[in-house]
Amino acid sequence: MAPASASNQRWVAPATGALWSAWILIGLTSSASAQVAPTVSPPVASASTEVPYPSGAKGDSVVLLEILVAKDGTVSETKVLNGEEPFAEQARQAVLRWQFTPAMRGTEPVAARIRARVDFHQQQTAVSAAPAATPAAVAAPASQRLATNGPPSIDAPLDVTVRGQRREIGQTTLSAVDVREMPGAFGDPFRAIEALPGVSPVVSGLPYFYVRGAPPNDNGYYLDGVRVPILFHVGIGDAVIHPGLIDHVDFFPSAAPAAYGGWAGAIIAGQTREPATEARGQANIRLFDAGGLVETPLDDGKGSVLLAGRYGYPGPILGAITSSVKLGYWDYQTRATWRLTDRDSLGVFAFGSHDYLGGSSDMNGQPGPIVEVLGSDFHRVDLRYDRALAAGHLRIAATLGYDLEGGSGATDGAAPATIRDRSAAWRLELDERLSAALSVRGGVDAHYDTYDFEQAPATNSQVPVPSSADPPPTNVTGGVHADVVWHIGPRLEIVPGLRFDIFESSRPGATGGGEIRTTVPAFDPRLSARVAINSRVAWLITAGLAHQYPALRVGPIPALLLTVPGFPFADSELQTARQLSTGVEASLPADVSVTATGFLSSWTGLTDLTARCLQIIPPTMPPQPGQPPPTPYICPNADPVHGYAYGAELLVRRSLSKRLGGWLSYTLSQSRRDEHFITPSGGDALANVTSDFDRTHIVNAVLSYDLGRHWRAGARFLFYSGAPYSYLSGNVPVPPYNGYRGPSFYRLDVRLEKRWKIGKTGSIAFVLEGQNVTLNKEVTPEGMKCYSSMIGPQGGTNVTNQCSEATFGPLTIPSVGVEAFF
């Protein structure tokens, strides 16, 4: 049943005992962060839309419904906006059985919210002599009904709202529906990022990623536009947000839109689901954690309240695998919204997370005591006002935050350290569609962060706090941004953008003197373009400049990552990233998409917090009275350096929600840095070398298959090259620096699910899942220790090399659980 046009649809179908029709006037609306692409097509009924006249009813009636058509064409939600009983309930129940061809954005199905009007008419029969009218048994032909009844009277157009963002050029979007089936992701859309091209974990299974050569501390994390310190729990790696709250995740490996500033690496932005119009919930319990989510509308849909959370108890699982690691975590989310008018609404969104990671080192072949390696807490409260414009959206929001990060690091002799950040932020976001070809987006944001730093007194075997971090700074950042989405023609789209930021950092003088303040402006131009070669192939290009505070390292432990963003004394250099990528994307038959991309990124002032502390120098003399103790740890690579990365990426995808779905991602790349190395004479050698965590080859292969009868199975294979290392002479690296590579690593993840339907919208599932079921161990860069010694008679020498490997893991996560949706 085809629509009459893209802007005015009429559906008419036979009805048993009723005459009815549904009209939909369609107006595309914008989301909070982007305009809907003009290629969006609305859902179309693909099966009978019959609504029987309710038994025992009399007279005519009109019912107005709001319907959510899911990606698979089923009706997942329906709400009565206007209508009287028993007609309203009759229409609502019937609509739940309707089937549609889903709304499409290009070639991708998307969920869409539409409104439908159902007209009930009681007809008199010509053969009945009874005084009371009875319903007609057979409806008249559609053409007669249309001529008789005429078009309905609708005061205002009814909307079709396409859920999800317009896909930005160079953006990869992961929906919660799609990645739920990914093995090893445990139903979490954020976890699936690891399987994308250009992404390399510092250690398999831990949520610290290098993205196109940018270190983990340069990647920005957002949730509904709110900056968060990290999106993953340590160890198990679940996201700090319940997956039932997430609608989709946007991933920008480089040159993100102008709305995102202050980061010199990738942007990972989660978007929450819109408030539900009907009560919903889900719950799960697994071997290592349990969680749940409930949401209900208030006052006939004017408001809504949501509560969600998760509690982790992975101790028994880890205890069966290793006695040297201890983990614990929990998180919470709560949201309340209220619609003030048809266009205005208020909302408050609060969320937070806690993590604990403990570890021990071997002492004479025996595991030592567990000490805290990392403790992390953060909390956010975001108050927001939203207004729907004629062809756009406005949001004004304010956020309060509290972060605490610390750990003793006693396994490496560092003093216990804790950093606190009390923050406040404000943002205004505006997008407006000026015409079918032109959209404008812009905004203003400001961030305030004040840091506290605590560390136990340093000893000869501990690291004193660097003067660049103590006293800690107060940072104030303000920025404006704007970009234009311009469809020049049917084959060309360009998005020029610009950010202007002021980075300011101040701190008390080291000797109690006056305040030291550093202020640096930054201009970040961005540009992206898409050229349609034909209906299935397009050429893409993105380019941009990005700036970020220097990340000041506290302590020598790569895993600790204690940081204080801000300017060190007498140094006003920002981290600066120049990012360029270009490639092609193609839509193939059978709903397969292919993207091939080449990229080049370069940095100045880069601070990589995962860089190794290369040398331990024993004190040459005891401490003198009134003088600080000698510094045994030398961490030259905590200083800003220059670097660059280049490579090629391939992504082949077929939705995992299909009966047979999967993807293949491959990255061939190299990341290089100017790093400092200590020479045997105690000097400082600067060399351009391969980055410490560079992986030449990274492969992810994912396959998921519907076995029938609600059984589904899948597997994921991960492979990457070994990390580089240097030979040592004693404890001093010798050239060629980082000229060798450790063993490569691979792992296999599996998933098996059985689902049962409960009622019309509910379900319950048994899920068996495992990450690294092959129990493989990984050799980290710190784990490779190779020594060179020279022996031989006078006048000639031989070089003898001896290597040892220290492995990490096996980090494996088995999961047996039950989850329910209602």
Overall geometry comes to globular
> What percent of the residues sit in helical stretches (DSSP H or I)?
under 10%
Structural class: mainly beta
- Total strands: the figure is 53
Q: Specify the CATH class of the largest domain.
A: Mainly Beta
C-alpha termini separation: 32 Å
The CATH homologous superfamily of the largest domain is termed: TonB-dependent receptor, beta-barrel domain
Overall description:
The protein has 822 residues and is mainly β. The protein has a 22-stranded antiparallel barrel. The longest helix is centred in the first third of the chain and has 9 residues, at 87-95. The protein is globular and about 100 Å long.
Helix and strand topology:
Layout: E1 8-12, E2 21-25, E3 40-41, E4 44-45, E5 61-69, E6 75-82, H1 87-95, E7 100-101, E8 103-105, E9 108-110, E10 112-120, H2 142-149, E11 161-162, E12 172-175, H3 176-179, E13 199-201, E14 209-211, E15 220-223, E16 226-228, E17 246-252, E18 267-272, E19 280-285, E20 289-298, E21 303-312, H4 315-321, E22 325-339, E23 344-359, E24 362-363, E25 366-367, E26 371-389, E27 392-407, E28 417-433, E29 438-455, E30 474-489, E31 492-508, E32 515-532, E33 537-548, E34 551-553, E35 563-565, E36 575-588, E37 592-606, E38 615-616, E39 633-634, E40 641-654, E41 660-678, E42 684-690, E43 697-708, E44 711-720, E45 724-725, E46 727-729, E47 732-734, E48 740-741, E49 745-758, E50 762-771, E51 778-791, E52 798-808, E53 813-821
Parallel strand pairs: 15-18, 46-51
Antiparallel strand pairs: 1-2, 3-8, 4-7, 5-6, 5-10, 8-9, 10-11, 12-17, 13-14, 15-16, 17-18, 19-20, 19-53, 20-21, 21-22, 22-23, 23-26, 24-25, 26-27, 27-28, 28-29, 29-30, 30-31, 31-32, 32-33, 33-36, 34-35, 36-37, 37-40, 38-39, 40-41, 41-42, 41-43, 43-44, 44-49, 45-48, 46-47, 49-50, 50-53, 51-52
